Amino acid sequence: MPTAMPHNRPPLKPDLWSEEAIEEAIGKLKDTEPPESLRVFLEKRIEEIPQTKAHTRLLARLHNELGLFWLQKEEMGWARTHLDTAVSLDPENLKAAYNRGNIALYEEEFEAALERYETILAKEPDHGGATYNAALCHALTGRVAEALPLFERAVVLSPDYAGAHFWAGECLLHQEKPDAALPYFHKASALNPDHPESSRGLAICLFHAGRHEEAICLCEHMLETFGPELTALRVKGDALLALGNPVEAAQSHIDMALIDFDAREFLVNRARYLMETEPDKAPPYVRCVLDHFPDFKSALDPQEPLHKDRPQDGRSQSHAQ
């Protein structure tokens, strides 16, 4: 007959979880259970593991996972607290450092985020995420020259990531290097056909490369896919002009003015620019414009000085609307 256990004996303390067992449990919980189950598991493990130097690496791992949980919930305060703890416990935990940098980037603290990404890259130069996000920090603060080599490096590290190709193209287009930007926008658009900004950049680059028929086809596809698109209408019109179709070009540019009042200034400037530089194309273009906007007649008086800020053919950034 078994001996009864005395009521005053404390319960036996279970063995602490090993790092391998915790890793396995986290993986299973992520695959099979709702996120809340993972949170409870992580908090219990953090509570039971001794806060000693021998366990700092494991605790950092747990705090990083808990920070990710709150990050996905967009609870930035809790996420920041746990990720800061993880980085403090284990400065070599690059996952935690990267996730903490991502919070700074999300909150548009670009310099703080960049510092964290650069610290990671000093330890792991081929870290694709830190490379791309460091480039973003530069690009979003206007430092295009610093951003470009990092985006080009991100393309090498993550060749199937459309964002890296797109931003490399954007930087090159910003530097007025459309020929160099073309392959990046082409790849970005192929990887993510539903990204209108990539299509805009590609259309502009095709125009600059003299591939006018391709530019027109792409612009028509953009108009069918994305709806009214100022860049598509503008590039299509400019490509039609280059092919010697001023009436069709005017119709495309007129459509811009019909959907965006500010585009009317572009339309007038383009007409007057043609009057000065391509007088053979100007009359049919101007007649078409005046058929739709007769009140532009005085603005298209050839005796009036040309607007000093007249647009140049195809000279628009891919992000312009």
From TrEMBL:
Q: Name one Pfam family in it.
A: TPR_19
The name under which this protein is listed is Tfp pilus assembly protein PilF
Alphabetically ordered keywords of this record: Repeat, TPR repeat
Instruction: Name where the TPR repeats lie.
Output: 60-93, 94-127, 162-195
Q: Which SMART domains match?
A: TPR
Which residue intervals are annotated with compositional bias (Basic and acidic residues) in the record? Answer: 304-313
Gene3D superfamilies recorded = Tetratricopeptide repeat domain
Tell me which species this is from: Desulfoluna spongiiphila
Q: Where is this region: Disordered?
A: 299-321
